[in-house]
């Protein structure tokens, strides 16, 4: 294919989503050039580690002794400082609910394309959006991914189909939101801040929570494609579960770490607003989604942030002197809109708010 074909809009291709390509029965001998966003020579030389990521025992945080809770808080602080990422085990989200939620998400993507097109939102703040890649209106290359994004708090939304999706997703996002708040409270304590101040500072009673379901079908040349490129998340915490097919990589000490979650666990990463409110003590982690040639990967993320109208700035107690202020503030709604309306690239929006030292 000619190089300029990578610039063709997705609407000019025969299929509008990756799911359509996968279901078409057409066997691709090579990747369409508009999806070839990686150089295999460069990628092949990038070191990938198989390190053990930090593990947090949630049961000890909420039901352990005072000494056990204090140790978990210390471990959380270290994980946020050194990684911006950790795995949560022994949580109180039922395994059956996780499995049912996964089935419901499969059900959505298995609907006819005409049914899903009802949710093809046009604006990044539309409460329900189904689409492909990240933002096809501004991208030079496409990503091997279809998605469903749903705003679930403070106002709960849900697609009408498939049957039961609304009830299952409501229970799932409620349980994960409760878990995220407990983790945030402990992270706040790890910064030696009062947990009661967190609710007011971030307006967590009206916190913004979004459900993001990602579908990554098999790819004919996975070494050339990406499910989603290196980026940081915009919120405070993102809680992720998978269907048993690995593909998440996180950046750690300048190298990529391939993450293999334990069964019935959640993967949690810190977002840009955690970095802002902590004045850079805890960094948002850059991560990416890779694809493979044989299996469909599904990931379910719930991202929790402050209320949309909150302007998050570094917590004053973490800024001892004015010259130590690391970030300006921006209304959270504007931050999301700016990130989602532009090509996704590392910490592009956070970098705009960073103060030069």
From TrEMBL:
Keywords: Cytoplasm, Iron, Metal-binding, Nucleus, Oxidoreductase. PROSITE patterns: FE2OG_OXY (PS51471). Gene3D superfamilies: B-lactam Antibiotic, Isopenicillin N Synthase, Chain. Its main location: cytoplasm. GO terms for molecular function: metal ion binding; oxidoreductase activity. Its cofactor is L-ascorbate. Belongs to the iron/ascorbate-dependent oxidoreductase family. This is Fe2OG dioxygenase domain-containing protein. It comes from Dioscorea zingiberensis. The lineage of its organism: Eukaryota, Viridiplantae, Streptophyta, Embryophyta, Tracheophyta.
